[in-house]
Structure formats: C-alpha cells, structure tokens
Amino acid sequence: MLVEIPVNGTTTKGYLAIPETGTGPGVIVMQEWWGLVDHITEVCDRLAEAGFTALAPDMYHGSATTDPDEAGRLMMALDVPQVAVDLAGTITYLLNHDACGSARVGLMGFCLGGQLALYGACENPAATGACVDFYGVHPSIKPDVAKLECPVLGFFAEKDGFVTPEVAANLAQRLTDAGKAHEFKTYAGVDHAFFNDTRHDVYDEAAADDAWSRTLEFLRAHVA
Asked: pLDDT tens digit string along 58-77?
C-alpha cells in the first residue's frame, strides 16, 4: 500500500508491505534508477511474504521512467543533502510503525539503490542492523564507511560495465581497511541488474535466486 512518509516538515510517498502476521523486522528497499516502479514494490511484497515489514521510499518524489537516458538524468539530479534527509525520515517512519517489530532496520537496494542503501547505513549507523548492496552505483554519493556499524552483504556481476569487478574489489578493500564486516559475491557470466526479472535482457534466474536466499538469511540474522 502507498503511504505518506513525514520528512523534515514535508512528506514523500512510499510503498509499504506488511506480513500476514501483522508485524515483522523492518527492511527499507531502495529503488533502481528507474524510480519507484513495480519491480521494487514486488521486492517489498516478497519480503513481506518472507516475514518482513518492507518499505520503499520514492526518492524521485513522483517521477519514474522506463527510458535509460531519463533515468540517468533523474539519478544525477538527486540532491545528496535531501537524500540524507529522506533516508533519515524513512528510517524513523518505519521504526515507529506498529508493523515494525525490530529495533533497527535493514537497508537494501539495487543499482542506484544499492549505493543509497550503503550511504544510508553509514549516515544512520545506530538505526541500521544490516545493509544489502546489489551492484550499487552513483558517482556523486560517497558513503563514509568509517561510520558504518552494521555488516554489509554485496552482490555484483562479472559483466557489469557500471560496477565492474574492479570497482567491487575496491569497495571491499575500503571496508576491510576500515575494519567493517562484509561479504561480497560476484556472479560469473551475468550483467548489471541480473536480479531484475522485468529486464529480460539481463535477468539471470539462477543468480537472482541465489542472491535472494542469501539476502533473506542475512537479514534474518542481523535485523532484530
């Protein structure tokens, strides 16, 4: 269902999925560069089926697209200070919601959202119990991993032209150097957005299923 999230005196929209039990550990799902589209709301629904209360904020405040050029423009137009405010407001909203049964949230995201999830975990360390980064990318958003207090699970693709294996290795080294717990997996022979089953040109069922199983196990272990 669509909800209004209070953010610094205003509101932004989000999609909230609640498990049948009525409550569950809270997980925030960050969108790809397309916006708050059906694929992201379906991820929330899948999390709810697995027992989590999942919330996806609309970081574009009403805009969404299927055009890669427009998606790129929307991504680059993000205002980083506003992103920080939106993320903090979203975390507060979910933690205060009656359907959230955890003291901290999990943050997960895809493409742009993967980078936003890591950024949000660094900026809100006390409120974040786990971070899942699916091939996160944004050139202007620089997570300060020194602030991180939760473990990070990262998924990457061997054929990714945006987040190359070298980029993933560099991030892993940054986390190692900062003494932060992390586990990264790079899937051989797959491309960026391999998890997105609406993208038939890149979707890889085997990699997506494996990453999903690992994600659920990770969130269950660290979000409470």
From this structure: 999 999 999 999 999 999 99
d(CA 125, CA 148): 6
Whether the CB-CB separation of 100 and 26 falls below 8 Å is answered with yes
Per-residue model confidence (pLDDT) at position 135 = 97
CB within 8 Å of 147: residues ≥ 6 apart: 122, 123, 125
Q: Express each pLDDT in 91-107 by its tens digit.
A: 999 999 999 999 999 99
Q: How far apart are CA 104 and CA 27, in angstroms?
A: 9
Cα gap 132→195, rounded to integer Å? 13
Write the pLDDT tens digit of every residue in 7-30.
878 888 999 999 999 999 999 999
The predicted model scores a pTM of 0.96
**Which one of 3.40.50.1820, 3.40.50.720, 3.40.50.300, 3.90.950.20 gives the CATH number of domain 2-222?**
3.40.50.1820
Where do the structural domains in the chain lie, given as residue ranges? 2-222
Under 8 Å between Cβ of 121 and 131 = yes
Within 8 A by CB and 6+ apart from 162, the residues are: 111, 135, 137, 192
**CA separation, residue 171 to residues 74, 166, 221 (Å):** 24, 9, 23
Residue 117 CA to residue 125 CA, distance in Å, equals: 12
Render pLDDT for 108-132 as a digit per residue (tens, 0 to 9). Answer: 999 999 999 999 999 999 999 999 9
Q: What is the maximum span of the chain, computed from C-alpha positions, in angstroms?
A: 46
Residue 22 in 3-state DSSP? coil
